[in-house]
Design a protein that fits this description.
- The chain is mostly helical and 119 residues long.
- Helix 1 packs antiparallel against helix 5 and helix 3 crosses helix 4.
- The N and C termini lie far apart (26 Å).
- It is globular and about 35 Å long.
- 67% of the residues lie in helices and 0% in strands.
- The chain has a single domain, classed as Antennal chemosensory protein a6 (Orthogonal Bundle).
- It holds the Pfam family OS-D.
- This is Odorant-binding protein A10.
- InterPro entries: A10/PebIII, OS_D_A10/PebIII_sf.
- Keywords: Signal.
Length: 119
């Protein structure tokens, strides 16, 4: 089984305040597909508009989720976000650092995020 990744946890952890294009089942299938996950990662790290509208939506939501450490999430969603992020950081540390550098270039949120992940 492919590892669960932080990036997709962003989509699976948002509350109904976000109108996502698909349900959690769709996002879970991306987690299990290395090719799709790599496509999402490429989209998130690119400065261009993503050709996949679902990936673009995730890219648009990522800054707020990282900045607020899933601030609009329910407790269950926060747990999913935490578990997925810990797994992503462990399994793909270079990609994890690239994503955080992209969405938190001044390292304002990395400390609080790490505290959350270690709690």
């Amino acid at each position: 089984m492919k590892p669960v990744y932080f990036i997709l946890s962003l989509t699976m952890t948002v509350t109904l305040a976000y109108e996502l294009m698909y349900d959690d089942t769709y996002y879970e299938s991306i987690l299990k597909n290395e090719r799709l996950f790599n496509g999402l990662l490429e989209c998130l790290l690119s400065d261009d508009v993503c050709s996949n509208p679902v990936f673009q939506q995730l890219k648009d939501l990522s800054p707020e989720i990282i900045e607020t450490i899933c601030g609009k999430c329910t407790e269950k969603q926060k747990m999913n976000f935490k578990n997925s992020t810990v797994k992503f950081k462990k399994d793909r540390p270079v990609d994890y650092d690239h994503v955080l550098t992209k969405y938190d270039p001044e390292n304002k949120f990395r400390g609080p995020l790490e505290d959350f992940l270690n709690s």
